[in-house]
Amino acid sequence: MSGYVKCFHCKEQVLKDEAKSYRYMTESNPKGTNRNFHEKCYEIHRENQKERAEMDKLWDYIKNEIWKSDKKRTMPNHLLRRLQALKGGLDNNYVSRGNQVFGNNEGYEYEAILYTFKVCKMQIVGSILDKSKFKNDNHLIDYMMAIVRNNIEDVYTRIQEKKKSDERIEKVDISENFKYKNEFVKKTDLSKNKIANKLKHLF
Ligand SMILES: [Zn+2]
Q1: Are 93 and 145 within 8 A, CB to CB?
Q2: b (16+ CB within 10 A) / e for 86-111
Q3: In sequence order, which residues have a C-beta less than 8 Å from that of residue 101 and are 6 or more positions away?
Q4: What is the CA(9)–ligand 1 centre distance, in A?
């Protein structure tokens, strides 16, 4: 079909004049190739890319800081499905093959999952130190994810509070009302809150 190109996302034809395109370049292919999309498919593609980048960050943390494993190690499938289930808000803890996973946001964002791993780092590292406790890798992953699941709601709440108070502080800073500012700082002093303290260094 002339005048048509293939949509990179859905693999259907898209009119060349209407396609959204960008050039995809890699180290091995510095000239790059064009990627074409339907307009809607382009949006989905960007969202998926963002999600992948967040997932990579999370895996890097687990691999390097929690497991201290080989940098080349790829994410075990069992862990991937566990994380996707937590993000998708699925009750059964586990995404089975073929489930819709991208763009499913009923659960917790990867950002919140990553913070929870950071907050619970010592607890997780301590509890998986003795590998003989676990039948296999999947068993260890389940144990680790149980700790994350038990704590994520608290962490998520703290993140939301922190974001809200940051927004408010920004607003107050612009105003010249110092009295209000001082009062506000007192009210939002979260130093007595244990989780807020643990979270502080993350932001
Ligand atoms: Zn498409």
Answers
A1: yes
A2: bbbebeeeebeeeeebeebeebbebe
A3: 84, 87, 88, 95
A4: 5
Helix (H, G, I), strand (E, B) or coil at 30: coil
The Å distance, Cα 164 to ligand 1 centre, comes to 37
Token couple for 120: 């619970």
The string of pLDDT tens digits covering residues 162-191 is 888 888 877 766 555 555 555 555 555 545
Residue 39 CA to ligand 1 centre (angstroms):
8
Nearest to 145, CA basis, from 90, 70, 100:
90
Which residues have CB under 8 Å from 37's CB, separation 6+? 7, 8, 9, 14, 19, 20, 21, 45
**Cα distance between residue 33 and residue 185, in whole Å:** 53
CA distances to 4, 148, 160, 188 from 166, rounded to whole Å, are: 48, 25, 10, 10
Question: Helix (H, G, I), strand (E, B), or coil: what is residue 157?
Answer: helix
What region does 89 belong to: left with phi over 0, alpha with psi -120 to 50, or beta? left
| CA–centroid distance, residue 167 to ligand 1 (Å) | 37
Amino acid identity for residue 39 in this structure: E
Q: Is 143 helix (H, G, I), strand (E, B) or coil?
A: helix
- Residues 20-76: tens digit of each pLDDT: 999 999 889 899 999 999 999 999 999 999 999 999 999 999 999 999 999 999 999
Identify the residue whose tokens are 């693999």.
11
